[in-house]
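Before the break, one more example. Copy the sequence into your notebook; we will annotate it together after we see the structure.
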Amino acid sequence: MNDLKDQLSRACLYLVTDQELSENHDTVKTAEEALKGGVDIVQLREYSLTDSELLTLARKVRELTKAHNALFIVNNRPDIALLSDADGVHLGQDDLPVADARKILGGGKLVGVSTHGMDQAKKAVADGADYIGVGPVYPTQTKKNVVPTVTLDYVKQVSASGLELPFFAIGGIKLHNLEKVLKAGARRVAVVTGIVKTLNPQKVARELKEIIQKYPLSSSF
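Here is what the structure looks like once it is written out:
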């Protein structure tokens, strides 16, 4: 297991950014506060920026994650991930295949894939993904009219499936429903508005992580 995969195996709280939905409309500030609160991974997911703006922002967030010993992932853009020295890229079902993303990124980097059913999860594993996203578990403001909510049943299916790679439950997860997701079998969660739309991302991230850590990882996966 390389260093990045080892770090991934220990990660449990994953922030996905969204500047438009952020309470302070400042991704750098939100990411910094969330990292102080204990976030293990930051994914830069910003759809409204130009390529130049996105790369500039990626480099800033990269420096923050290094300072906090956290992983940095770029959504859907292996080219931006490469240029910003990110630790990897996250792909949706309509994005580049895993193998092609790796050709751009080079060896040793992480590739995650969003999945919405067991067939997609198994394909992601077969394609060589390093982790998968499982969701959206609850209705979410970030994926309107795109992907139907999968409910906790899919979390339970993946948890019981024996898939040998980390999975992060995602989609509408907040402090008030996090424990339900963990009781369904998730041990890692990705959060968007549950952190970025709060007035105190650091406090909320810390509280989320405290709850997650009540359900310790049972293996390296």
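DSSP finds ten helices and eight strands in the chain. The first strand starts at residue 13 and ends at 16. Try to locate both features in your own notes.
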